[in-house]
Amino acid sequence: MKYPKYLLTLIIFALGGTLTAQETKFNRFSLELTTGIDAPLSLRNGKSTSDYIAFKQFQISGRYMISQTYGIKGFYGYNQFNPSNDSNNGLTFHRVGAEAVVNINRLLNINSAGRRQFNVLAHGGMGLSLAKPDTQSNTDNIGNVLMGMTGEIKLSNRFSILGDVTYLANLRQHTYFDGTSLPHNDYKTGSFVNISVGIMYSLGPNKFHADWY
């Protein structure tokens, strides 16, 4: 779909275009790529969460740190859900949105030696989910909210390994996660969790990213 790509481009320009002119002693901007498993927590249509767990999600993000403690992030994410006993039915999400980011180590003023190698970020925000059932031609446009925690392990001044757990709630979902419609064209809140690993790359002319400065 074109809409998520266009919106992600606008988000990245908004994060980086007007702010990168500020002179600092650390890099503010980073790119992140994560992937992992996803699992629905509601609207499972009589199935268990374990019936849906699969390695079928990824996310691309651009993050800008306003300071060493606070930042903002724009993202595009992809999720696919298929019951394990019915691979022909399912639900696919294309997600875009923006989040606030807080460096927990900085917020709590943790200055131990380990902070230079391990960091924790909290994030939360809002977005738009475009949901497409596998057996239907219609697309469901859904507002969502999300929140999560990210652990970082520094590999070098440019690269860090990420581990993330994010909870997402679709506020007006018209289909179950197996792709079948709710009765009477009803809608409910559909929720799921992403458990991800990935990598972050620091952009900028300085030696350190804000996370490690």
Produce the secondary structure layout.
Blueprint: H1 2-16, E1 29-40, E2 54-65, E3 70-81, E4 91-103, H2 104-107, E5 118-133, E6 140-154, E7 159-173, E8 188-203
Antiparallel strand pairs: 1-2, 1-8, 2-3, 3-4, 4-5, 5-6, 6-7, 7-8
Folded structure, characterized:
By secondary structure, this protein is mainly beta. Mean pLDDT is 90; it is low at 17-21. It has helices spanning 2-16, 104-107, and strands spanning 29-40, 54-65, 70-81, 91-103, 118-133, 140-154, 159-173, 188-203. It has an eight-stranded antiparallel barrel with strand order 1-2-3-4-5-6-7-8. The protein is elongated. 37% of the residues are buried. Helices cover 9% and strands 52% of the residues.
Structural descriptors:
8 strands, mainly beta, 2 helices, elongated, 213 residues, eight-stranded antiparallel barrel
How would you concisely characterize the structure shown here?
The chain has 213 residues and is mainly beta.
Backbone structural class = mainly beta
Strand order of the largest sheet: 1-2-3-4-5-6-7-8
Please work out how many helical segments DSSP would assign: 2
Write down the Rg: 18 Å
Report, as a whole number of angstroms, the end-to-end distance. Answer: 38 Å
Output mean pLDDT.
90
